[in-house]
Every structure is written in structure tokens, then in C-alpha cells.
Amino acid sequence: MKMKKYILMMSVAALFITSCSLDERSYGFYSNDNFYKSEADATSALLYAYNALTFLEYSRGIFYLGDIPTETMSPKTDEAGDVYQLENWICTNQTEQLEYYFKFCYIAINRANSVLAYIDTPSVPVEAKKRISGEAYFLRAWNYFNLMRNFGKVPIHKEAVSELSMTTAPMAEDLDEIFEMIRSDCWKAISLLSVNKEFGRADKVAAESLLAKTYLTVASAKENKAYLYSDMDVTVSEMYDSSAFYAGKVINDYKEQYDFDEDLRHIYDVNYPDGPEHIFIMPIERSGTQEGNYSKLPLMFLPSNSSIPFYIKYSDDSLQKANGNGWGVFLCNDDFVENSFSAVDRRRTELIHRNIYDASGNPIVPNQVKGYYTSKYVDPDFIGERTSARPYLIRFSDIALVYAEAAGPVEGLPVLNRIRTRAGLIPLPEGLDTDVYRREVIKERALELAFEGNRLYDLRRTASVTLTDMKASGLSEMETAFFPIPQREIDLNPNLQ
Amino acid sequence: MRRLILITLSLASFLSSAVSTSAQRSVSGTVVSGQEPVVGAFVYIQGTQSGTVTDADGHFVIAVSDGEILCVECLGYKTCKLAVEKDRMDYLVDLEVDSQMLEDVVVVGYGSMKKSDLTGSVASVKMEALQDRNSNSIEGLLQGRAAGLQVLNTSQDPGAGSIIRIRGNSSLNGSNTPLIVVDGFPLGEAGNLSQINPADIASVEILKDASAAAIYGSRGANGVILVQTKRAEKGKTTVSVKHQTTVGHFTEPLNIWRDPLLMAQISNEELVNAGLSPTYIGAYTNGVYYPSLLEIEEGKWSNTDWSKIALRTPVVNNTAASVAYSTDKVSMNLSLNYFDDQGVYIKDSFNKTNVNFNSIYHLSKAVTVQASSILSFHGRNVNNTLEYGRNPLWPVYDSNGEYFLTSETDFGHPLVTTDNVKNQTDGKDFITSLAIEAELVKGLKLRSQLNYSYLTSIQDIYYASNTSQDAYDLKGQAQMNTWSSQDILSETYLTYSGVSGRHDYSVMAGHSFDTAVARGLYTTAYGFVNDSLQNEDMSAGDPEKNYISNSYSDSRMLSFYGRANYAYDDRYLLTVTMRADGSSKFGAHSKWGYFPSAAVSWKLHNEEWMKKNRVFEEFKIRASFGVSGNQGISPYQTLNRFGTEKYWSDGKWQTAVGPGYEVGREGANDRYVIWGGISNPELKWETTSQFNIGADFTFKGNGPRITVDYYEKYTTDLLREKFLPLSSGYDKMWVNDGSILNRGFEVTVDANIVNKRDFSLSGTMIFSLNRNTVTGLGNAVSSGLNIDPATGMQYEFCGSSLDTFSATPCIYAVGYPMYSFYGYRVDGVIQKDEDPGFMSNDGKDMPGELKYVDLNGDYAIDERDRCVIGDPNPDFTASLNLSVRWKGLDASIFLNGVYGNDVIYNGYTFDPRVKVKRWTIDNPTDKYPSLNSTRSYLFSDYFIQDGSYLRIQNLSLGYTFNLRSILSSIRVFADVDNLYTFTSFDGYNPEVGVDGIYWGGYPKLIRWSLGVDINF
Fold it and tell me: Which of A162-176, B555-569, B605-619 has the lowest mean pLDDT?
């Protein structure tokens, strides 16, 4: 009788052993096993790739890398060491902001690669497949384009990294390899995508814009004998023509969706991210819960008023409410504001300020304003520190100026003058020499796209960094052509040693 | 060797011998133990009341009749009986020491054994010494009670637990906390076993070396604490009630501004020195009016002592009642405990109710069934962030009788916070086990135990819009979070023991299966119409601002284990253990871990040639070696894992999913994300190999027992994160890499100095020394290690970053102890016209600044001037407990000390006491820098102090009334906890966490208790 009990007990115990599996199944998170099965999955993965750009490592990097090392903008005096390094052209391969920007470009690339690796699921309808993979190609091209103009030759990841053995990618042979990759990704994107304007996402026009920018970068850099670009196996005129071709399509073919915005301030109104100027803009929204979803960009640009919101006064006496707790990190350089802009330039009078005002429009004095600040990033409906201010990634005027530059003085001048007219400037005369004309376009770009993360790349591709930015005057164009590849990449990727 | 003579007994014996009957004769004798005479031994005839007591030479004279049995009794010795022989007039009685301590049974993993048969290093804690202290859980009481056990009671919050370490820290990223096992059920990490009232605990064993702990396999590397709860004594029914009330007060005054004028002067001075305009000038700054010094001097402004508003005298009440009942067939224990713990902050409290029931049924001679259940209900109301150091100039109320606030966004008023913040956590824990034990054949026992625990908690939080910036911006913040965990563990093992001639052996083998699930649901809502509902209706908030998240983890472990004990002739002992753990948490390629151990022991005192020695009653040497593990890995950590983010698209927030997820953050305010999520199927446990050699001596004549141990504990395969190339799209992945060595020496001396019926004095002295060294941190490049330029030392920063310095002070460095401090050196304060030895472009070279040492002599102070400047690990710890009893009166004192550890006094220069002694032109001190509100401090040895202390931890006094009625005894007792601390540390309390960072808080409390313990 008792023995039976024991036997029963033992067999119950034995049951426990046999029923036990030590395999682990993921719970509560996605992995390769339970994802990439449907169109919704693929869309979600694509948004994840876009989302890499919204992290502040990337979104602030746009200005740290694109504007700080130029004559247009400087950080406040007690800003962290790495920003100071960028400002003074003494950055090293340990400069943190470079590392972060580099890293996030590749995070976006890996996410885009992952979309491309799994998109060929039968359950995704053909139309969706085209759009999703088209955007993934665009994103990959976008990030390699930025890597190229910032770091030059970089490692090339063409496939999603899913295990340790895939984490070390080969270094690009030369810039041609990267250029070819960007170009072919853009072509694929253009052929897969249609015109489909949607805030926060890219369409065919964005891909054409990117391709136009890429051609122009290569064309002018080769022409100006910029370091590494000069070795590229391309023809300058062909590059200019290709750039003009795609930029021309962008500015002429889609007037319904994309066009000039005649109202300058409207371009920078955070409540109109779908305005005609915005070809690709970061989808930031103040209702987000973490920085990246919302942005603190205005705090970077605005001066402090001891946490009491202040007002910006425009020439028509209208007031715009702004955060009062700005950090004043990004200061517009006096010399640039006062000497590069004409006094009547509306981009100077409307978008760059020196004073702050109270709700009744009276100037607040004394104040803590440390220099000129721009009102391109102001969200009057901020919630505490949360704002909808966004970096402008591809703007119609940018591509218009790309066209103006690439197409040359004959076809380009009307487009250039259209931008000048909007700014309240007199048109440039016809018959300028091509070189002189192109220099004028570059100048116009500096004014039109000021503080939008653009200036450094124009200087680099025209090999004029050291002539323009006093802080770089002791260096050669070769030394300023690219930022150093971060040390951690060199240390850990044997292909770079 | 003086002994007290039992006068009463001897008187009685003389009287009885005077009336003895005629057929008697007188015999004499001597009572000895070995060569020593035994004084005060009671000599009597069996079955009579007549007897005598030995004198100072051990002699006695007694009247006897032939054939009677002579008995000799003395405390501390075994009773000796011998027959009265005809014609023999002189008797030599050699008493054998009753080595009760050695006969004690010690609980070990999956079994128990005689203390004298232990081959491993196991420390038993004497529970009776701990019972007078009022405590939520047993762990805090263990401080200083076992060699090699480190207990840090760093928090005085109500219901707070302790930090527990056994033989040092041996993991960088995994846990360093020992496993706690209650009645055979491993409950998890030790620290706060609040479900069990310490009064219900019968014994606590600390398993330290591999031989003892390796039976717990992959969870044994940090040592194991075995807790056994009380069981009813056979044949008895007892009822007891115990109540204790404790009142606490600060050991020293709070360090806050008490003179507002001085505070204002200091504030102005530090602003002016920083080149800013002073605030106390009778003007508005940021919308707040700050009076001028003159206005303050005129006394028109208040001088509020906010500590009186925010703090209170905390009272702790602890009531317990228990019933124990036992017959031949059934025995049971029921105990109830209500514990109410007040914090120092008003409305900051913890309370719990525990019900603990266990029963044993002897179904037959061979079969026993045991069932036990623990229910615990506990609640914590958190209100511990009140600003007791708020500006004394601000009054409590304004002229309208409302709370005075400096602005709409002043969230610092303690009463506003207290009235408008809700932060309450309620928990219900249920722990039960059912066991059956059967003797299948003689010597072969089967035990099968099924354990189940279910722990739940629910947290209610509400921040009204006037209590925080977030709640203000978003109109109220409500949370409701629930969490539960469930653990089912089945254990079955067979034990066979037998004796065959001189061979004594036992073998145990078994297996267990454990499945644990934990899940949580976390909800947050913002944007309420008003604050009156708090979080009562989570859906009443702004529908756009509802946030939900949940968590789940599931792990399973299958284990097989066994142990063999063998003793030859009670002289040579051998123990071998083995455990195999297979865990779902381990990587797919490393599912099974094997953890063997072996130990030998030699009882020299049982050797023929030692038996005649006059010194040692016991002389045993032990040696052990074995391997145990530390699981460290959390579930799913070895898998590929995608992340989830939100992306604004198509006019709404959409969920975005893809490769790489956030595994951590770095940088100022944690603004930068660290990405992980790439799988490592090789990932496994950390491995600790431990060697232990020890000896136990007991001196003859009831002398002290000394236990010494030396160990080396080498941990390899440390769980670490390896950096990946930036271009991979990931930052880090988990690998097994790196090693740590702990070496140490432990001594325990237990002495029953006097042991008489009416008087006893005993003491325990414990000494522990541990040396911790990080011996490897893996590949310097892929681990992203920093290199010290002067010494080439490889290191990485670890632990908390300190805002005072915008730096992380602690490092793991190869060749140095864990948490070593790394920073600058300071050599006083720069005086007027002095060359500090360096130049600085932010004014660090000005008079009144700290004089940093330019280590590399480049006339600049930068990161290359840093070096190792401190070590938070103590050189040694020691404790002494003395207990004395005289008739019904008992008293004990407990001293605990830590020596040679460094402590970072974070915020030292912000201390009002330090500020007033600042450097000025007229006060050219070398000790305190000038005031400057915007100065950035580098982390330097200026902030490091000696954390050594000796504390009179506990003093208790009790009196027991033994009553011969229904009431069997009443004990009243008084207890003082934390009476006094001798230390040179300037902060409130040098007892800080393992990283040596002192965070301030409030002074240590002296706690005065009164209690009564009634037994029926």
C-alpha cells in the first residue's frame, strides 16, 4: 500500500523532469522569430529605421557637425569639450559627437538593411513592398551620403547584422564605391517610389533630391579638387548635368505637392510640417513622451530668460511665444549675421534676432541674451521643454539652389533670383562667369540654409573651409575635408587596421 | 580557574548528610577533568536529595551505603555515575566535557549534520543574541554575527533591507548577494526577508566555502544563508506573546542652516565670488523676493526650522503571538506578527502583518508529512523626499493662512508635498511548502518537497499638479503599477546513511525542477481636470496621455545534485558534492553547468596520540575546494532582441519595431542610448572556484572554541559587455570575460567564560578580513578599457555618477580592489600670491581654490593628473558580543567595527558647517576652499574620508520572572540600538554602500526599546 504511494510520488517527480524544456522562447519582445511576417510588420520596421534619425545623438549632430565648424555658428563658451573641439577644428577620433553621429548613421543603415532583408515575404502586397523597400533604399542612401560627406571612406554594410560574425564590415575601397552605392540605392528608390508626400517619410521626390545633392557634391568636389573626391573616376560636367536633371525634376514636375513657400516665416512654422517646402523633415511632435519623439531643439537655440517664457518680435510687430528656459548653446556669429547678410535681407530681419520681449511687446532688459539667435526653431505651443521643432532634412529651396548651381548661369539664374527676391534682395544680373556665378550660389546657400546643418558641406565640396572659417585657417583643405573615423571603429573593426 | 561555590547546595547537602541513616560510611574523592580539579561539582546519591559540593581542590566527602550509585553533576560536563564499591574509600572522578556546541546539529544544503562532522566552512548564528532588537527582517540583525559575512544597513527608511555579502564581491555586473534558503526553499537574494518575523527563526547558517555552497550550484557562488523556522518542542504546548516598542532619535543634530542671516551672507558671498549678482539684496530673482541682509537682521522674516515641520520622532511597534503544540503524532506552530515602522519623515511608514503556520504529521513511524505556509501583508507609504533643509526664511504659511510658496513652480514645501503626493505600495506574499519524508528501508530516507511562492504588489502614485514640474506641465501624474511573481520548485532526494565498523557514511542524491514567472503591468496617465481623484480613475486623464507597459519573464531550471560523506573512525572525513544545473537563462550552446566540490577533514583529537593532550578538547583541520556559479544573466539576455519605439507618422504615433534595443544609457542626464540586442548563444554563468583551509580548536575544561579559516575565491567568466564596432549598428553584447580574486582570513572565538546555574558569562569575538582584487577585465580594446597614462593601469568606470563632480568616482581596475576611487589629488588650498603649480583657464589656479596636484608636471590640471585615490573596501571588520546572566537578570553588549575603508563625502563643500569655515583673504585656511556658487569640483581626495568606525551597536538588559502558574515566565527587556559610534568621519554615518559613496540623508538613529515577552 505504502510502496504504491511512493511509486506514485516518484513518477510524479519523474513527470516534472520529462515535461521540462530549457529552451527559451522570447516573450514580450519581437525578434526574427516573430516578426517580418506582414505588411504591418514591414512598415513598422521601416519606421524603426526612420526613427534612428530622431535620437538627439543624430538630430543635434546635424548642427554640431554641419554648422558649428563653420563661420556661421558657435557654441556658448562653456559648452562641453567635444563641441568646443568641433568649433575649433581640433576634433580627434575620440570626439564624442562624431562617434554618436557615425553610430546613428549606421544604426539607421542596419535597420534599413533589415527591412530589405525580410521584405521579400509573400504576404506583403506588391505595392506595399515597392513603397517600403523604396524608402529603405532611400534611407540607406541618405545615411551613406551623410557618412561620405562627413567621414569620407567608411565601412560598407550591405546586409543586416544579426550575429557576431557580421559585425565587422569591409572598408570602402574609395569614394567611388560609396558613390555608386548611393546612386544605385537612389535609382532603386526612384523606380520603386511614387510621389507621395507624407510628413516624416520620404517619397520619390526625396530620392530624386538626394540623388541631385549627391551628384552636385561629387561634381563640385571633383571640380574644386577636394581631397579624395579628386581621385574619383567621374566626369565633372556629367555630374553637374545629372544633378541638374534630377533637381530640375524636383522643382518643376511636382508643383502640386512641392514648391516654393512664398511666406518665409511659414516655412519655419512648426504647425506646418507638410508645407510645400518640406521634402524630407524629421517627424517630431511635442506630444511625444521621450526626447527624440519631441525635441528640445529650441532650447539649444534660444537664450535663457530664467524659465519665464518670452516673446520674439517680428517686423510686422507680431509676437511669437518662446521657451524661457533656453540654454543658448547655438549662437549665430556676429560677423556672419552682420556682414554676410544684407541689412534688408528678410532672412536676416525675420529669422535672426538679438532682443527678447514680454507679452506686451516691451523689450526685456536687462536680459541674458548672449548673441544673435535664430527663430527657425521655435514652437510657441511648447509643453514645458517639449516642442515640435524639427531639423529640416531636405527643403525645396535647397534643391532649387542645387539646380541653380548645377544648371549653371543660364538656366539656373532665374531660380536663384527667385530665392533672392523672396528674401527681399535685388536679382543678380545675367551674364556672370560660371565660376563667379557658382560662388554666388554657394553664398546664397549659406544665407538661405543658415543654421540648418548645411554650411560645412558646401565649404568642403568647394575646398574653401580654411579660407572661410578663421578657426580652420591653420589647417590644409585635406585636413578639413573629413572628420576622423571614430577610434572605437578603428579599434574593433579589423578591416580598418 | 576560579569557580563560584554553590553555597545553597552545599548547605543543603551538609544538612542532609547530618540526618543520614546508620548503615552508612563516609567516603571521600576528587573530581577532575583531565588534570584539573573541578570545583563546585554536585555529588549526590542517585534517588536521594542528599549530596555535597566539591571544594576548591575538587575534593568531596559524602556518606554512602554499599550498592548505591554515586552521581557527579556539573554544568558544562557530562554527568558521571559510578557504583559505590565495598571497602573503597577514595574515588577519583574524571568528568568528561559536555561539548554541547560540538554536538549541535547544523543544517546544510539538503540535509543536516553534526557540527563536529563539518568539513566545509559553515558559520552558525546564535539566534538568542538577536531577539531583543526590533527589526523588520533577520538580515539586518546578522551584522557582525558571523565571520566572513558583511552586512550593510545603509538605509533607515521604514521597512528597509540590508546589503549582504559573503566573503567579498565577486561579480561586476551580476549580483553579489547570497542566496537565502528558508526551510529548504531558495527564496532568492538575501536582503530583506520581511515575510518571517525574526522571532520565529530557530537557526541561521551561513554557507561560505565551496564544499558547503556548491550544492547550490549556479546560485551558490555568493554563498548561501540557510534559515530554519521554529518547530514545536515535543510534548509541550506553549503560548507566547511578545511586544516591543521602539523610539528613535538622531545621534547628532541635523546639519542645516539655523541662522538665516549667516545663510544669506554665505549665499551672497558665493554668488559674488562667482561673478554673479547676490540674491539677498531685497530684490526679485527669478520672480522670488529675497530680503536684504538688513531686512533679515531686523527679524521681519521668519526663521523656520523645517526639520520640525518635515521630520518626527519615529516609533516602531512590534507585536507577536505564537502557539506551539506537539504530541507524538502531530506538532504545529502558529505565529502572528504585526509590525509598524515609522520613518523619520512625517507620514513615511511601513507596516506588515505576518501569519506563519507549520505542521508536522507523523503518519507512521516511517512516514512524516510537513506543511508550512507563510502569509505576509505589507504596506509602504513613501514620503521621504521632504526638504527639511528648505530656506529658513520662508514661512510655513503666508498671510492668508495658505502654504507659503515662492512661486507657482516651487515644489519644495514639505507640507504641500506630504498633502498632495500619494506613493503607496501594498504587497501580499504567500509562501508555502508541502513535504513528505519516508524511511523506505532502514537508513534510506526519501524526502520530496513541493514549494510554492506567490508574491504580489500594487503601487499607487499620484503627483498633484503643484508637486513636480512634470505634473505641473501635464496637469497631474497618476500611476498604478502591479507586479507579481510565482515560483514553483519541486525537490526530491534520497539519503542513505549507515555505519559499518569504523566506516561511517551517508550518501544523498536528488533532483529539482524550478519554474519562475514574474510579470508586471505599469500604467501612467496625465492631464486631470483637478487633483481630487488622484489615481482613483486612471481613465479620467487626458486620453492622449495614457501610457501602458508590461513586463514578463519566465525561467526554468532543472538540477541534479548529490553528496557523499564518509568518515573513517571519526578521524578522517571526506565530503564530495556535485550539482548539475540546466537553466533556460543560459545561452543555447551552454545550457548545462557542472559544479563539483570536495572537502577533507582530520579530527586530530581523536587520534590516540592526541587523546592524552591537556590542551585541546577538539582539534580539527579542514580543507575544501570546489566550483560554484552565479547566474547573473536575466531571462532572454542570450537571445536576439528587437526594440520598440514610437514614430510620428500619418498624423499619429505609430509603433516602430526593428533590430537593436535600448540596453542602457550614458552621458549627462542619461541622454545617450546604448544599443544591444545581438544574441550570444555561448553566454553562461560566472564561475567561482574556491579553496578553503580551516581549523577548529576547543580548549579543554570548557574552554573557548576557536575557528579559523583562510580562503581564496577566484571568479572567472565574469559577465561583461563587450563593445562592437560602431558600424555594426550595436554598441555592446554580453560575453563571459574577466576575473576577480577574493582572499581572506576569518577567526571566530566562542567562549563560555563562566557557566553556572545562576551565573553565566559568554562572549563571541569575530574577525574577518577580505582582500578583493580585480584580476582581469578582458580584452582592453573590445572592453573599451581606459588606460591610466602614468601607470598603464587598465580600468573602466563603474556605478553612480556624482553630480557634484559631473564624474563617476569608482572604477574597476586590473590589479585593484573593486570600486577603487579614481580622481585627482588635492594638497590644501591655494593661498594669496602662491604658485599652485599649474595654470587654468577657468580660474582653478586662483587663491582660495583647491590646490590640485599636477601629477604629470605639465603645468595643467587635466584628466592625465588622475590616479587611484581610495578604496572603499575595509581592511577588516570585527565584532564582540558579551552576554551575562545572573539569576533572572540578563544583559548583553554588542560592539561592531569596520576598519580601513574610504568613504566619498559627496557634497562635503555644500555642508553649512564647511561653508562657514571657508577660505577668505582674512581667513587663509588650508582646509576649506573659498565660496563660489558656480565652481565645478573635480573628483579628488579632498572629498575622501576614513570610514573606519567602532559602534556600540546594541545594549540590552532583561529580567525573567519564572512563575509556576499558567504563566510560565515573563521577561521584560530594554534595548538600545546604535548607542554610540566612534569615528572620524564628518558625515552622519560612515556605514555606506559597497561603492563607498556617502549620500547624506539624515543622522543615524539611536533606538530605545522596551519590550515584554510572556510565555504560557
Answer: B605-619
For residue A308, list chain B residues with Cβ-Cβ distance below 8 A: 286-287
Give contacts of A199 with chain B, Cβ < 8 Å. Answer: 648-651
Average pLDDT over residues B256-260: 92
Instruction: Mark yes or no for CB contact A13/B492 under 8 Å.
Output: yes
Residues 6+ apart with CB under 8 A from B772: B168, B169, B740, B741, B742, B817, B818, B873
Secondary element (H or E) of residue B283: strand B283-285
Residues of A in contact with B733 (CB under 8 A): 164
Q: Minimal Cα–Cα distance from A244 to chain B, Å?
A: 31
User: Nearest residue on chain A to B549, judged by CA atoms?
Assistant: A28
DSSP for B225-267, written as a single string: EEEEE--PPTT-EEEEEEEEEEEEEESS---S---HHHHHHHH
Q: Do B660 and A201 touch (CB under 8 A)?
A: no
> Which domains, ranges and CATH numbers included, belong to chain A?
12-193+483-496 (1.25.40.390)
Where are the alpha helices (H) located in B23-129, listed in sequence order? Answer: 100-103
Of A187, A132, A178, A130, give the one whose Cα is nearest residue A154: A178
- Report chain B residues whose CB lies below 8 A from the CB of A83: none
Give me the pLDDT at residue A7, please: 53
Q: What is the C-alpha separation between A461 and B816, in angstroms, rounded?
A: 51
Residue with cell 578599457: B785
Residue B883 burial (10 A CB sphere; 0-12, 13-18, 19+)? buried
DSSP state of B484: E
Inter-helix orientation angle A204-223/A175-192, to 10°: 160
Nearest Cα to B526, choosing from B516, B539, B513? B539
Q: Which residue of B has its CA nearest to A48?
A: B656
C-beta of residue A279 within 8 angstroms of C-beta of residue A209: yes
Cell output for B641: 532582441
Taking the CA of residue A254 as centre, how many other CA atoms within 13 Å lie in the half-sphere pointing to its CB? 25
CA distance B868 to B820: 7
**Cα–Cα distance measured from residue B115 to residue A2, given in angstroms and rounded to the nearest whole number:** 34
Judged against a pLDDT cut of 80, whether residue A166 lies above it is answered with yes
Q: Which residue has the cell 532582441?
A: B641
- Tell me the count of A-B CB pairs closer than 8 A: 219
Q: What is the pTM of this model?
A: 0.82
Res A3: pLDDT: 54
Strands (E), A333-488: 352-353, 373-374, 392-395
What is the least distance, in Å, from the CA of B541 to any CA of chain A?
Answer: 15
Residue B147 predicted with pLDDT over 50: yes
User: CB under 8 Å to B369, separation ≥6 — which residues?
Assistant: B360, B361, B363, B434, B435, B436, B437
The per-residue pLDDT for B97 is 67
| B866/B629 Cα distance (integer angstroms) | 36
Out of B436, B639, B723, name the one closest to residue A26 (CB): B639
What tens digit of pLDDT does each residue of B106-131 get?
A: 888 898 888 888 899 999 888 887 88
**Interface mutation target, options B652, B657, B734, chain A, most CBs of A under 10 Å:** B657
Outline where DSSP puts E strands in A327-405.
330-332, 352-353, 373-374, 392-395
What SS3 class is residue B676?
strand
Q: Does B554 contact A27 at a Cβ distance shorter than 8 Å?
A: yes
Which of B523, B722, B728 is the best residue to mutate to test the A interface, defined by the most A CB atoms within 10 Å of its own CB? B728
Of A9, A17, A106, Cβ closest to residue B558: A17
Q: Which residue of B has its CA nearest to A44?
A: B656
Is the CB of B448 less than 8 angstroms away from the CB of A100?
Answer: no
ipTM over 0.95: no
Task: Tell me the DSSP string of B320-342.
Answer: EEEEEEE-SSEEEEEEEEEEEEE
Q: What is the model's pLDDT at position A26?
A: 78
